[in-house]
Structure formats: C-alpha cells, structure tokens
C-alpha cells in the first residue's frame, strides 16, 4: 500500500496545529496519558472542547472511554461538575475507583441508589436511574453541571431499563454537554441526528478500527483452527461501505457469499461440517439397530430423542484451558450462558488438577483473598463458598457472574487485570462495560436462554463478547475462539464474526412515574411535545416519511388507472365492484364446499361404530369392510377396519369421495382377536353373509343421510345468482372494451389495497408515544392521581405528588399499596419483608404456590397488594398498556429472617437463592425503602419504620459489599 509524502506546506500546517493543540486543555490532557490519542479520540475530544456534544461509536476495547475521561477533565478545569453515568452498579464502582485514583477522593463521588459516597463532589459516578431521579426531583446537585458522560448508551435499546437513557437525554438542561459512548451500531447517524435535534450541536464520530487485531478461531477437539482461510483479521472481514451496509448482509452466508464479501471460510472446517452432516444423515436414514429402534419408538408413540452425532470428540473445559495455555493464549475469558455452568467449570478445572499460577503468584493471591475475606463474618464464609472460591483463585481460575457476592467479583476483576488469574468463566454480564480485557475469549455455545426460550446470539452480542479479546498496550493481537459443537455451521459462525454492527432501536414507553412528573413540571400539552421528541417517536416518524412518500406515488398511479378504466356507457368502478364481489363469492363458495365436504367426511368417520359395514370407495384397498374400532376423539378420525380380504387397515378422509354411512351392521364376537388369522377370516365371512342377506342398519339409525350439505350452502348460491343478474343488467356489461377496462380495474383495486395498508401503518405509527401517554393519563385519572380542574385541565392530587417520588417497574402498585394502608400495621422487620414483594422478580421456574406468611400483619398487607395488582392489571388491559408485574412472594421469608438478625446460612437454607443474588435484592429493597422514607408528606411513623428497616438489613455481607 503506497503512501503519499506530505508537501512542505502540509507538514507546516500539521506542525502548527499540533503546537496550537498543545496549548489547549486537550493538549494538557494528552500529556497525562501514556499513549498517543487515536484519530477518533482526538476528533471527539476536540468537539467537546469546542462546546459540542458527541456520539462516539467504536468497537469494544477501542478506547472510547478516553473521551468520557476528557469530559471529566474539562469540567474540573472549567470549575464545573461532571456526571459519569453507567448502566450497572459494578461498572459505576469500577469507574469510581479509576477516577478516584486519578483525581483524589475529595473530587470524586459515587451514587448507585443504595450507596452514597461524596455525592456533592465535582465528579460523581452514578447509575443512569440516579440521574433520572435527580432530574425529576430538580435536585440541587444539578447546579453547575457542565458535562454528562453516558457510557454504554446503546443500553437504551434494553426493553426493561432503556427508556431511562432517553429520559435523561431529553430532560438535561440545554447548557449541559453530553458525551454518549456506544458500541458500534449500524444506525449511529440516525441516533446522532436525534441527539442533534434534542440536544443541539452533536458530532457523530464512528470508528470501525480495533487497535489490537482480532483473530477468529474454532476449537475442534483440542486443536485450534482458524475460522477464515488466509490471514484475515477483524478489520479485514469488514464489508465495504457503512455500518448500515454491513447490517444488511445475511447473518449466515453460504461459502460462496462469504467469498464475495471479501473473506473465505477455512475449507478444513467446511469439510468437517459436511462429514458430520453425512454421518447424521446415515444415522437417521440408514439401516441398522439404532435407526430401527428409533422407528420402533416413534411407531409406539415415544418421543424421539435428538441424536446429533459428531466426528469430533469435544474437549473438556480443563482441556480447553490447557490447550490455550500451551499456545500462550491466556489469560482467557470463557463465556458460559449459565451461572451454574460457570461454577461447574471452575470445579472441573480444580478437580482435574489444573494449575496456572506460580508459587509467587499464589502467595500474592492468598494475601489479597484473605484481606478481602477478613471482614466477612466467619459464620458466613462457608455459605458464601469462600473456601472453594479461594482454592480456584490460587490456581488462577475463577467464575464471574451476578450470583456471586459483589466483593468476590471485585477481587476476581482486580486479580485478572493484574494477570494473576488466568482463566475466568463468565456470564454475558461481564461483557457489558466491565473493564476485564483478555488475550483470548472463548464461546462455549452460540445460543443462550433468554428467559423464555433458547435463542441464537446476535451479531451484536457476538461482537460485544469477543470484543474483550486483545489488551491494548499488552497484547499484539487478540483471539476469539468458538468451541465446535455437533451441528456447528462454520459459515454461520463466519457470518456472526463478519457482521459487526447491529441497529439501535428505542424501547421508550411512558411510565406512570414519568408521565406524572412531566405533567407536574410542564403540563399536558408540553408533556406531549416532550414525549414526541423521544428517539422512539423520531424513529417512527422517519419510517413514516418513507411510507408517506410511497403513498403519494401510489395515489398518482391510482389516478392514472382510474382514467384508463373509464367507460362511456356507465360507471365502470361500480361494474368492477360487482365483478369483484361475484368472484369473491364464487371463491368463498368453492372453499366452503371443499371445507364442508372435508368436515362432513370427518364427521361421518367419527360416527362409525364397531360392527358397521361400509363401502370404502377409494384408497389403497377399496371395497367392503367392517369397522373394528371407532375414532371419536382424533382431530382427523381414522377408524380401524377389516376388509373382505381379511386385511387390517385404517381409513381416513383421503379414502372417501363423500360422507360414508354404514350399509349394514354385524356383531363382532367378544372372542375376536385381530392378531389371529382365523378370527379375521371368520369375521370377513360374517361380513359377506350380511351383505348377501342385505341386512339394513339398526332401526332409528340416521347416520346415512346427506349430512345437510345442500341446505348449508343454499344461501351462498342465491347470493351468487343475484350478483350474476346484477352484472348482466349493468350498462358497462355490453361495452366492447369491457375486458380492457377490467384489466385496469384489477390493477387499480390491487394498488388501492396496498395503499390503504400503508395508510394504516402511518396512522399506527403517528403520535404513538403521545397516544400511549394519553392512555397512561386516563389510568392516573381513574385512580385519582390526576384531578380535573373543570376547564379541561388536570392537576396533580396529593397521592399523585407521592407517586412522583416512587421509581421502579411497579411504581403505581407501590403507590396503591401505600394508599390502601398495606404498610399501616407492620413493624420494621415486616416493612423490610413486605418491601421485597414490590421489588423481587423470581425466575419463571421458581414461581410456585403462595407461601404461608410469617405474621398476620404481613398476610393482610400481601392480600391488599395482590388485590390492587389484580384490579390494576384489568385496567391496564382495558387501556392497552403494558401490564404491571405480579407481586412476588419468594423473598418474604429470607428477608424476614435477615431483618430479624439470622445468619446468612439460615436465611438461604431451603431456597435456591445464591448469596450474590440475595445481596443484590436486599440492596434493591434498601433503595425502595430509602425512596419511601424521603417522600414529602409521608406519615412520619412509616418514614421512621423504613429507616429502621434499612438499618436492620444493611448488615453483614450486605454492608460489606460496597456495590451490587
């Protein structure tokens, strides 16, 4: 690749620019770094320095957080505040630690709902929800705010929490500069255009380049094989053009498609895949004991087992890590989409005798682990799995998932970052921003359970996970390894690896809390305008523009078609309508007859009784037969019969030409055995005798009628006859150009249907957010949170003011629980237990029968909240709103025991709760209780009880864990 030598004037200009930059804040900031800024980083920092907002979209590990850190630096230099927001508490804690080391404890604070450290500092790290709550409360902390960094801003696509990001972006004061940091998304320009609309000047800076090259591999057995043929890295498999062009490519290309896209799948993997497919084909359809057993199982109604076979012996988890170690590919993160799987992987590696650490490293690890555990109550160490966790760490092996104690996760992150832990088995939550880069990333599977079903991971998720591979400034290259599984398609893996972008789609929906806060601050007309400025509506409106353009084009074509079908004899539009109605009626009649015949045939089969002699008109063995067993319950009845040739078979609708009725009846002896040839012959002889004697069916048997087929369709035939007469009587029927006009009419009608469909789409997308807001307001009015003032306006009631300070997915239900006195008879312990009902979300498989409550007061409180939830769900269904989640009772007993001071082992005994999960839920209960205690005008007794309850449950491992 040739490079052009810059001219003297270009060199002089570049030198002058560098000299000018050195005198700026950006130049001073750059001098504090140990590396040169990349072009995209410098460009984004310049935009911030010049007073504009930025959207930075870059691959994981590219260093986009440098832009956020420059925003913090600028704020401090200018005497302003900076807020650094993150989607998860673990990431907030990590960023807090980094910024504290850089700027000192006095200058940096942390706010995560349950944790508050130095909240008035000039730099505060927080979860995005905390900033949203500040904005609605008009907090004094917002004074002098100059910059907000929104890390992982692509999280706004999250269907549960994503709306919070949009709320913050919309409501931040206009003078605040926003630095939005995102993974590479295919519609960055669209998102940037929205930011420009709601925030003012915003520069969109997209980088597709990874600073550390990423190589893609597949581990086949214990061998690591390149995914692509030749020397193909992450940057080189990028399709030409924009990220949007990349996103439009097929996800699982064929090998030929792959070649056209600039990369070639390794032929060795394709050969292996074909061999495996052939092996399974032979196993499924070849001759042999296994195939025959499978056919027998299916014949007798047993569920067939999935028997995918592979020519490759899959490596165990310890063998995978050992293979990586031999090839100098550690440290590595292995993503397993299961907490139990992560813990099992560590146990398997320990049991195999795998050691990845030296004696010196083991000494350092032991010291750090023991320091971390010294403040944990001794009684809790066993239930927390401390000793097995410590054993794994000493070997350089650890798990990382949400079920772990936050302190344990923090230790793992630090040991891994320092190169002391070499192999981490993690769930996908680690990929979300937590700074744990590795030399290699391993994916055990390319599918995961999303809470409802097993689904394939998306190209965006693959990019996010594998983006952890390659440590900038440490590794020359990073490595992504997919483990070969039976049925692996190398071309599909290549499609995931080559499609690095995914679209950012809004999940914004007005909630009760959001709506009432908007009404309180801005009034209803302005609140609707604000909601219509959301990214969700922006995307809907953009799609409407394209649809409207299509509608205009089609309307012009319709006018031309209408002109071409004009007839001088009369109104051809009316004549065309009659033709269309006649055609529809004839088609409907034909389909109705067909359906009626099939239905009547099925009905006649289901009416047959053992002993009925019938004449089967068609099929494999037409002729006379006797029914041996009836089939009433089946959707498509297939009664068993015996033919005159003594053959056993079943008859179905395909054997009939019309409804079947018995010709006569015979008695089947009780001794008849269909398996005995002589029994079959004797019964066939009885059938022949009955036919010769021409015995009629039993008296009163009405099963041989015509089943009413003619009368059922009589009205339809009359309608067809009437339409035919009206058509012949119409003036246009005699036109010499009638068929020519009719062809234009058919085109007009087809295009009219398509156009009307587009118009309906436009109507459905226009003002969708505002319409939802109106329905939310209707619910709030019905519950008395909004009161009519008589002039068409609404004011917030006292209960509505209380709802403004309740944040969470069950905001209105929590408010109703307060309103209906659910908390009135509870003490502090019971308040803590009851609060868990309003925040806890059980896994679907964990939901069971309602447990017995610890006290009568709690039983009453739970009855109230369940009754209120049931009524609220009915109202939400009527108003076509998302349904509020059901109150969950699975945490009541553990929380009750914890609030009463029981040991952690006693609390978790008999539950499936992991210690880390329990700590996380306790912190969410603390967050809710803290919200309730601070509600203006709340009953002082309840506020005091909430504060007491917080003290009771913020103890032991909960108090020791600074984040969760």
Protein described:
InterPro entries: DEAD/DEAH_box_helicase_dom, Helicase_ATP-bd, Helicase_C-like, P-loop_NTPase, RNA-DNA_Helicase, SH3_HelY, Ski2/MTR4_C. This is DEAD/DEAH box helicase. It comes from Arthrobacter sp. K5. One of its GO terms (molecular function) is helicase activity. By secondary structure, the chain is an alpha/beta fold. It has 38 helices and 24 strands. It has an eight-stranded mixed sheet, sandwiched between helices. It has a seven-stranded mixed sheet with strand order 10-9-17-14-11-13-12, sandwiched between helices. Strands 21-20-19-18-22 form a five-stranded antiparallel sheet, with helices on one face. The longest helix has 36 residues. It starts with 7 loop residues before the first helix and ends with a helix. About 6% of the residues have low confidence.
